[in-house]
Amino acid sequence: MGGTKLLAVRLDADGTVVDTVKEPIRGADLVDQVSRAAIAVAGGVPGSVGIGVPALVSSDGTILFAPNLQSSIGTRLGELVSQRLEGTRLWIGNDATCAAWGEYAAGAGKGSGEMVMVSFGTGIGGGVVIDGKLFEGVNRAAGEFGHMVVKVDGPLCPCGNRGCWERFASGGALGDMAREAARAGLARRVVELAGGNPDDVTGEHVTMAAAGGDPEALELMARLGRFVAIGIANLVNIFDPRVVVLGGGLIKAGEVLMAPVRASLDGLAMGARVRPQVPVLPAMLGERSGAVGAGLMAMSVSPKGGVAT
């Protein structure tokens, strides 16, 4: 699950995607929607189900905190889905953590051993693999990279703090930057793609214009790339990974984002002159990475029945 959509995939025994179901999040009854999607994609009650949620999730599968899906807070997802899908193996975790495992097990980070993945969408999430194992932290809250505070008096974040990284480096942040530029009479091609109204400008309009070579849109992408690189450098300093994988919807922008990220990252990490620059790679599994990772976790670690986390 993301903030606005649900994607279900069916995996074979080797973890290959053989079918998908994609639909918008409908209302507050996530339990019903998730259960129905699992049955639909599997063609019946599945043997195992992994669920990735844009939230902090307890050990029993309860949604504790979800800045971008607040109506779901308090939902006993593990208990209620288990009742709907009786006898199914069930694993529930953070969606970006799931994406990290998907990319490590079957994508851009395969075989790396130590990997950091950052997922850029409406907000920013992520995950960490250390010594070939998914690292979730004591409270299963590891990987909330988007809520690193990078400017103490910065804009208010849905999490309640100010100046979080995702307010400067996410798809939502790109939209904010573009609307600000549009209201100042700039980003003319971007406004044109939005139908002429600066208030209707989104990050997608920026990436479209940048892909077409528009210089003002490219400048916005360069600004975004600088903010992305600052956060990545912090993560490199903390984890010293073998590879950093960038995923999420924003990465569909391709090289108009990846190029300024790499250029800005050069020299930012501590000791950059005496250590190799960490490769920064786009995710290979695209929007499926979270669903694939969740499914692989369910297949590999869950006992029959109940919720394994």
What does this structure look like?
The structure is a single chain. With 309 residues, the chain is an alpha/beta fold. It has two domains: 5-95 and 288-308, ATPase, nucleotide binding domain (Nucleotidyltransferase, domain 5, 2-Layer Sandwich), CATH 3.30.420.40; 108-283, Nucleotidyltransferase, domain 5. It has ten helices and twelve strands. It has a five-stranded mixed beta sheet with strand order 9-8-7-10-11, sandwiched between helices.
Main features:
309 residues; alpha/beta; Nucleotidyltransferase, domain 5; 2 domains; 5-stranded mixed sheet; 12 strands; 37% helix
Poorly predicted ranges: none
CATH superfamily of the largest domain: ATPase, nucleotide binding domain
What is the level-2 CATH architecture name of the largest domain? 2-Layer Sandwich
Number of strands: 12
Q: Would you state the CATH class of the largest domain? A: Alpha Beta
Overall shape: globular
Percent range of helical residues = 25-40%
Q: What's the number of helices? A: 10
Rounded Rg: 19 Å
Distance between the termini: 17 Å
Largest sheet: 5 strands, mixed
What sequence of helices (H) and strands (E) makes up the elements? EEHEEEHEHEEEHHHHHEHEHE
How many structural domains can be distinguished in the coordinates?
2
Secondary structure category: alpha/beta
Mean pLDDT: 91
User: Beta-sheet strand percentage?
Assistant: 15-25%
